[in-house]
Amino acid sequence: MSRERVYRTRAIILKRREQGEADRVLTVFTPEMGKRAFLAKGVRKSASRKAGHLEPFTQTSLLLAKGRTWDIITQAETVYAFRGLREDLDRAAHAYYFAELVDAFTREEDSHPEIYDLLLSGFHRLEQSPNLALTARWFELAMLKLSGYQPQFFHCVECGIELQPQTNYFSPEMGGMLCPRHGEGRRGAQPVELNVQKVLRYVQSRPYAQVMQLKLSPARLKQVERLLGGYIRFILERRLKSPVFIHRLTAVAR
Ligand SMILES: [Zn+2]
Fold it and tell me: How far is the CA of 177 from the centre of ligand 1 (A)?
């Protein structure tokens, strides 16, 4: 990046918090600079022209001025608003989860253009998705891959043999599946039935359009969600807030 005082970038808004009387600090994800925090001055005043261009999930084009603690947003213009995500509570909850995952898996100022692209396509797909849970599992696996935590579902992570069509075991600690010989009785390893393994492999290795053709029972999808959620929690060593929120929503809807 140049030393100029003013620069422009695209960004997706991940989250925001209030600062002082009328300002906000926005955590955003950019194509070139990865995750960054910027100061948006005066955006909580009703006359602010920037505010509408800085809503959560918005893809925006920013003009920034170098500041001491935070660089300051001097202009903001919406590139794509993702209105479909904000107007639907269930889609919004999933979008929060995607943003939270990206936030949790990245550090500030590490450049990750491929994660920017993933988040952008993730939001577009979420906006259109007929099966939010399946889109979320695809996103989780894509995010794990890009962050270097791709789980191994095809071979035993202990002995390397190709897994047989049978109940095998998953170990978050080992980052993948174990054959019965190495998985049975191992602490932290859980049995995974064959049909769940098939879904995991399919979602991990097929293009998104094919993944979305899968017809899965809610129970099967739940098993996949639990396994991936457990793995992600293990990696992040803390429970993310959004999955809890999504579950609460689902419970309310019932
Ligand atoms: Zn083995």
Answer: 9
- pLDDT class for 74, splitting at 50, 70, 90? very high
Ion ligand 1: residues, CB < 5 A: 156, 158-159, 179, 182
Centroid of ligand 1 to alpha carbon of 240 (angstroms): 31
Is the Cα torsion angle 246, 250, 252, 253 positive or negative in sign?
Answer: positive
Q: What is the secondary structure of 127-142 as a DSSP string? A: HH-S-HHHHHHHHHHH
How far is the C-alpha of 214 from the C-alpha of 164, rounded, in Å? 22
pLDDT tens, residue by residue, 217-226: 999 999 999 9
Compute the distance from residue 178 Cα to the ligand 1 centre, in Å.
5
* pLDDT for res 249: 65
- Residues ≥6 apart with Cβ < 8 Å to 219: none
Class of domain 6-81: mainly beta
Reported in sequence order, the residue ranges of 56-189 that DSSP labels E, i.e. its strands, are 59-65, 71-80, 168-171, 176-178
CA of 167 to the centre of ligand 1 (A): 13
Length of the chain: 254
Alpha-carbon gap, residue 78 to 62, rounded angstroms: 9
Say whether domain 84-253 belongs to CATH 1.20.1440.120.
Answer: yes
Full-model pTM: 0.91
Q: Which two tokens stand for residue 161?
A: 């043999």
pLDDT category of residue 57 using cuts at 50, 70 and 90: very high
163 CA to centre of ligand 1 in angstroms:
8
All structural domains of the chain with their residue ranges: 6-81, 84-253
